[in-house]
Amino acid sequence: MTDSISFSDYRLWNCLLPSSIPVGPSLSTLKSRAVNVFWTPDTNKAGERYKLDLDSGLWQHEHDINTDAVLKYTQTF
Predict the structure, then answer these.
(1) Among candidates 44, 45, 62, which has minimal Cα distance to 53?
(2) Beta bridge pairs of residue 40
(3) How many domains does the chain contain in total?
(4) Has residue 32 got a pLDDT over 80?
(5) CA 77 to CA 36: how far, in whole Å?
(6) For 3-7, 44-48, 56-60, which range has the lowest pLDDT when averaged over its residues?
(7) Does the pLDDT value for residue 69 go beyond 50?
(8) For 26-61, what is the HEC assignment?
(9) pTM recorded for the entire structure
(10) Domain span at residue 53?
(11) Residue 40 in domain
C-alpha cells in the first residue's frame, strides 16, 4: 500500500510567477483533488493576494473571487 500526503491549500509568497499557468494535467490534478492555490507576490503589500482559477489558469485577485472578475497580474521590471 502506498502512503500519500494530502493537502487542501498550496501557498506561494514573495516570488514572481507568470500571469497564467498553462491548462493541462497539472491543473486538472489540483482541481480533482480540490486543492486551492494562493499567491502573495509581496507580503509587504496588503491586499495583494491571488487565487489560481484551475479552469482557466489565470490568477484572480482575492477580493474579486466572489465576482469572478479575473485580474491579469503583470510584473514590470
Answers:
(1) 62
(2) 13
(3) 1
(4) yes
(5) 28
(6) 3-7
(7) no
(8) HHHHHHHCCCEEEEECCCCCCCCCEEECCCCCEEEE
(9) 0.71
(10) 9-67
(11) yes
